[in-house]
Write a structure and sequence with these properties.
Elements: H1 2-52, E1 58-60, E2 63-66, H2 68-101, H3 106-160, H4 173-192, H5 202-218, H6 220-235, E3 243-246, E4 249-256, E5 260-264, E6 270-274, H7 275-279, E7 283-285, H8 286-290, E8 295-304, H9 309-322, E9 333-339, E10 343-352, H10 358-375, H11 383-388
Antiparallel strand pairs: 1-2, 3-4, 3-7, 4-5, 5-6, 8-10, 9-10
Helix pairs in contact: 1-2, 2-3, 3-4, 9-10
Length: 404
């Protein structure tokens, strides 16, 4: 009888002990929940509010990507997700401990732990096995990065004129760097591709082929413009600031990119021309000639036959010399361009090194021609006006007429 009572007491004590341990785990879990709530609400959220008052947002040049209020909201959202994650983690750890206390539920402990531990162990083994390939990827990226830094430094030195390479022009440096950078990126991708996880799987290959097809279909014009831009750069047909004419478009080169060239006209209009269009068109560069002897500008004037060509020549050259931005050397010259039915067409030709001001130069030249010819008493008639007036006199200059 005493032995049975002793056995019952031991079993009761064991049950009470298990219940006590379970209560202790629950109390500890409750305390941890309260502690975590206090830390997140009273400490972390308060710090987020304090730092949020000093935030200035995230900007990309002139574009504000994230405002301070959006950053604070994002921080509170991350804090809430972390707090819930900690709750789940504590509960997940407490449940196996509770199940391990009671013999009837002890087998569930291994199941719960295996749900997390087995994937973590598998991930760890896969990561350790992948470490050699990952190390090779890191080395490839670092080497290519430092090669690009070296090329960027050389490009800056060539553009600044501190590094001179025979038969290599400074304006080629940026285009050459861009071309080499694209080649290095492509070469790096080729080297890294076989080292990526699951790179040999059919799904990965299918996605790669799909992206390649999309790129080849949608980028034909992009590639053609990019290659045309590189060819134009190495042709050295023009540079930033040059006044050029492409087809019917005349203006100063405002911007050169890998795909387009932008011209600014005398009316301050911006014309965007694709590089492929420029490559297939004739380019007239006025600034290149201006840097040497100068660009030739010309203006035609119709003068009646009763004025000698020597007199017209003298007056036109006088008007040209008085015009600003006209080069004295080479000097202006006059051509007799056409002998019309009622007037002679003269052409005054001037040299200038300011082709960007040709509209203003033409205007000033025309004003001087009007002033000088009117001051000299020359009637600048047109063929229509000459044919319409009634006059029976000869248009031959008096000094050329035969005396009777």
């Amino acid at each position: 009888m005493n032995l049975e009572f002793l056995t019952w007491n031991e079993e009761t004590a064991e049950i009470v002990k298990m219940i006590g341990l379970a209560i202790l785990v629950i109390v500890a879990l409750f305390i941890l929940f309260k502690l975590e709530k206090y830390i997140f609400k009273k400490v972390i959220n308060r710090k987020i509010t304090e730092y949020g008052k000093r935030l200035k947002g995230i900007r990309l040049r002139s574009v504000e990507l994230l405002t301070p209020a959006q950053l604070v909201s994002a921080a509170f959202l991350i804090s809430k997700i972390l707090r819930i994650s900690v709750y789940v983690f504590l509960l997940y750890v407490a449940l196996p401990i509770l199940f391990a206390i009671f013999p009837a539920t002890r087998h569930l402990t291994g199941i719960l732990f295996s749900l997390v531990i087995d994937p973590v162990i598998a991930m760890g083994r896969s990561f350790v096995a992948y470490l050699p390939k990952l190390l090779r990827i890191v080395i490839i990226i670092l080497v290519m990065r430092y090669i690009l830094k070296l090329l960027r430094l050389i490009t800056a030195e060539i553009e600044a004129g501190r590094l001179v390479i025979p038969k290599f022009y400074p304006d080629w440096a940026r285009a050459t760097y861009t071309l080499l950078r694209i080649f290095i990126y492509a070469f790096t991708l080729v080297l890294i591709y076989p080292l990526l996880p699951e790179s040999e799987s059919s799904v990965f290959r299918g996605v790669s082929v799909f992206v390649g097809v999309l790129f080849s279909i949608g980028s034909s014009s992009v590639i053609s413009n990019m290659m045309a831009g590189l060819v134009i750069t190495y042709m050295r047909s023009f540079k930033i600031g040059d006044r050029i004419k492409v087809g019917d478009s005349l203006g100063d080169v405002f911007e050169k990119t890998l795909f387009v060239v932008r011209l600014q006209t005398v009316r301050k209009e911006i014309i965007t021309i694709p590089n492929s269009t420029i490559l297939s068109s004739n380019i007239v560069n006025y600034s290149v000639a201006a840097n040497e002897q100068g660009v030739v500008l010309f203006q035609a004037v119709d003068i009646s036959y009763d004025i000698t060509w020597e007199r017209v020549n003298k007056l036109l050259i006088e008007a040209a010399i008085k015009t600003e931005h006209v080069q004295p050397d080479p000097p202006p010259f006059v051509l007799v361009r056409e002998l019309g039915s009622s007037a002679t067409t003269y052409q005054i030709n001037i040299y200038t090194k300011r082709p960007d001001l040709q509209a203003r130069i033409y205007s000033e030249l025309n004003r001087h021609i009007l002033d000088i010819f009117q001051r000299d008493g020359i009637d600048m008639v047109t063929p229509i006006y000459e044919a319409a007036r009634e006059w029976e006199g000869s248009t031959i200059p008096a000094e050329y007429r035969k005396t009777e």
